[in-house]
Amino acid sequence: MPSSPSSSAQAARDALAVRLTHLRKDAGLTGKELSARCGWHPAKTTRVQKGEAAPTDADIRAWCVACDAADQTEDLIATARAVDSMYMEWRRLHRNGMRKVQEDFYTLHENARICRVYASNGVPGFFQAPGYATALMRSITNFQGTPDDVTDAVAARLARSRFLYQGGHRFVVLVEEWVLRARIGDVRVMSDQLSHLLSVIPLASVSLGVIPFTAQRAIWPLEGFYLFDDRHVVVETLTAEINVRQPREIADYMKAFRGLGAMAVYGAKARQLIESAIDAL
């Protein structure tokens, strides 16, 4: 598994390594003895126990058999897979196209009562107009060199907007002013997108704040993130989706969101910034 910038992923990997190490010690085996039983070099055992290498399903099965603990195999495999899901490279997620990921996000929104979003690099998916979503997802597909299913992926992304109008969901969104000015697509696409933002501001389910260029920064610009209730954060980097579920880290994201929200403007002032961006086109 690639090294993750999220400490929760490393913490979970370390916890798995500790469990495997205890399993070996409980069996009364040295690292060399376990390696011999598993048929691999002792250096591999060392890397696994230090959390430097992620064991495969086959590695875990062999480890458990060597320790006469086959009854723990499935639980350890499930734990390892959960660690792996914390850091998911976009090229891996998009290896068959983007539609599946959009459907997974649909489920996350469906199950969340409150979705808090900090958008520093683009309009959130559930606020996107068709032209904007198409232009953005086309550029992502071209950059990653993954299969082109943009038409289906856009349809799946736009389906999320239904939660703005039904189901009792709440969307608390903070957008950097830069997002309003960055031209994704041509002038017509951006004009339609910004006009669409104006149309969602009055919705009872929506709180939209814009952080002006001129804001005195108490919190520096961050990578965009989605906070689903108080249980799950999805952070989007250039290369990967990071899933954070560790309570301490979630609390940090909540704290950052409050700090960012304090710098934002809302209501008429937010509308003015959006209208100004339209005029600039």
UniProtKB/TrEMBL annotation:
This is Helix-turn-helix domain-containing protein. InterPro entries: Cro/C1-type_HTH, DUF5753, Lambda_DNA-bd_dom_sf. GO terms for molecular function: DNA binding. It comes from Streptomyces jumonjinensis. Pfam families: DUF5753, HTH_31. Residues 103-275 form the DUF5753 domain.
